Amino acid sequence: MKIPNFLFDNPPITQSDIVKIIGNFELLDKKSFKVVNEDGTYDEWGVEYSDHYKEVERILDAMRQRKTIIVKNMEDYSPEIRAAANLLGPDTDVHMYLTPDGGNSFAKHQDTRNVIVCMMWGSKDFVRYVDDDEWYSYTIKEGQCLYLPQTQY
Q1: pTM of the predicted model, to two decimals?
Q2: CB–CB of 78/85 below 8 Å?
Q3: d(Cα 50, Cα 121) in Å, to the nearest integer?
Q4: CB within 8 A of 95, min separation 6: which ones?
């Protein structure tokens, strides 16, 4: 069976956009940031009626500690990302992973929506399970994206 996953070589955002994204109040208000703990669990970060600048500093501090930062709702960040997501269908989410070398993201799970993962620096190994006996692995490197259809691990 051919798996319908695609690697994109030119994501619609660049490393120079990272500071703008981390400081984006709309993404902060939506609690779009996740900081991954060493055990693979994560804390959702963002603000509601609070100090945006303090939250930005918290995220930057986590990055200095070499923690993985996941940014959800990237399809709401720019028209270019929204257009790319819309090509894949209305149930497509775009997440950005800021993963230092050797960083951990999360444990095995099942996505309920389409997901595009874009790597801005470092690399990340993904394993997708078709069932307990069949799996596929992907390594996403700096500047690449991976499309994962909904309902697949």
Answers
A1: 0.71
A2: no
A3: 30
A4: 70, 71, 72, 74, 115, 116, 117, 118
Question: Max alpha carbon distance in the chain (Å)?
Answer: 50
Give me the half-sphere count of Cα atoms (radius 13 Å) on the Cβ side of residue 45: 26
pLDDT tens sequence across 69-81: 888 888 888 888 8
Q: Which amino acid is at 102?
A: G
| Residues 41, 4: Cα–Cα separation, whole Å | 28
Tokens of 15: 């490393």
Q: d(Cα 26, Cα 29) in Å, to the nearest integer? A: 5
Which token pair is 149? Answer: 């259809």
pLDDT of residue 124: 77
Distance of CA 50 to the CA centre of its chain: 24
Assess contact for 36 and 71: CB atoms under 8 A: no
First to last CA, the chain: 16
Closest-CA residue to 97 (of 46, 47, 146, 153): 146
Cα 10 to chain centroid distance, Å, stands at 16
